[in-house]
Amino acid sequence: MTRLITALLSLSLLSLASANTLQFDIVHNRDVQAAQLQRRSLVLQRRSLDRRSLNRRAGTVTAALANAEQQGLYAANVTIGTPPQSFGVQIDTGSSDMWVPSVGACTDNTQLDDGCPNGEFDQTASSTFEVVGRNEFNISYVDGTGSTGDYFQDTFRIGGSTLTNFEMGLATATTIGTGIMGIGYNTSEANVDTGNGTEYENLPLAMVNQGLINSAAYSLWLNDLQATSGNVLFGGVDIDKFTGDLISVDVYPTEGSRRVTSFTVAWTSLSATSSSGTDVLTPSDFAEPTILDSGTTITLLPDQLAEQIFSELGAEINEQLGAVIVPCDLEKNTGTINYSFGGPGGPTIKVQMSQLVLPLTTTTGQVPKYSNGQTVCQLGIQPAGQLPTLFGDTFLRSAYVVYDLENNQIALAQTDFNAKSSNIVTFASKGAAIPSATEASNELAVAQTATGNPRAGGATATGSGGSAATYNPNATGLSAARGFNTSGGSAVQPFAWSKVVMLAMSVAFMGMGGGVLLL
């Protein structure tokens, strides 16, 4: 089996099983799907820039997540079928379907040079396999990739726990070489718009209904960029994985609808802090609908706010690379970019430079350099253009995030990187409040104009507060910029950009139409 599967299987041995619980790590594997993710990264980054102008408790499930640092992929090990077949699948809070490629789906596609190295499902080898929606699975992505095939039911295992007759997608044709575990709202399943129009029990709901967890909720701890693993905990909160207060904010439906399809929250402040000061970059009435999505590897900000951040950090858009670049030395800077949610009484997450500066490497193993000899890195923030505002992994690594699908709330706290201990508090019952969390006071509200989850390509978002398209007119200047100065800014030495392997920007936008558990 592939390196990813091997790594995940070894980590899964650390999981412990008990009644109504499931816990396992998510692995940060640096060798996953480099070529395929690079292709998606280049398309999405250029489009965005062009548009600019191991504990386990009863009622919980914990799963290990593998972190592909170079490609931005967080993956978990699962098995499907009888006897079980092993897969490495990407964890994605921004989509809702669990799907895997079928045998032959990748080898028949010339776009997938590496095939499907993380597993292909052989339906003929499973005695519990049953098709429930012939030709009804159809998921597409904004970069032109996608998968089509059938919906099926089979035995599904994750983190030492088992689901029977669990519904998934089987890709008989795909341009994506690894399966995806969507754990968002079932209202945004591909089947709702491209299949027979009905919703089914996706993973969080199936875990509740089969008694693995008490409430459809989970906590995500990605850990830091250099860590080999993090985890996702279904049905509970690990209070040893964060520092400070865990504060909850509301998740908002699409404008003019009561239907919640994505994890959209009210982002209400952006600031930059360094040794030379703090700059508040948004006005006091700022409120922007923002989607929290682990399937997006970077952070997409409204264009003018992104430009403000670039000015603070000394970043520049390099059209040749199709990336926002910075000197790699910036990762050593102690400054932070600060994001607040829900208004003054809501949570604030501080993102260190070490979580934002990402490597750029040539296919021959060389690192691009500026003409002054400094190495070139990629910044994990880009202008959104016409895409929604999305906070992906370059934000989420710095936050401990609890997703409560029952009560339409998200709780955030500053993460505790590389925490060694675990203290899990379980959701007491279906619909119970988030354990150990307090609600934001006097919360500001927003309206999401996107008509689906963050995978609805081309959707835009507008807030009910100050416009996200303008920075703070009362900003005190770039006082923090002096503290971020790394003396870069010289020209990048010539090289073949086609040979550059950038951190993949996996914004897997699904086309419209188309207890506790820890992963």
UniProtKB/TrEMBL annotation:
Q: Which residues form the active site?
A: D92, D293
The Peptidase A1 domain extends over: 74-413
Q: Which Pfam families match?
A: Asp
What PROSITE patterns does the record tag this protein with? PEPTIDASE_A1
Mind listing the UniProt keywords for this protein, alphabetically? Aspartyl protease, Hydrolase, Protease, Signal
Would you kindly state one Gene Ontology biological process term found in this protein's UniProt entry? proteolysis
Signal peptide limits: 1-19
Note the superkingdom of the native organism: Eukaryota
Family, similarity comment: Belongs to the peptidase A1 family.
The protein's name in its UniProt record: Probable aspartic-type endopeptidase OPSB
Task: Give the organism, scientific name.
Answer: Hyaloscypha variabilis (strain UAMH 11265 / GT02V1 / F) (Meliniomyces variabilis)
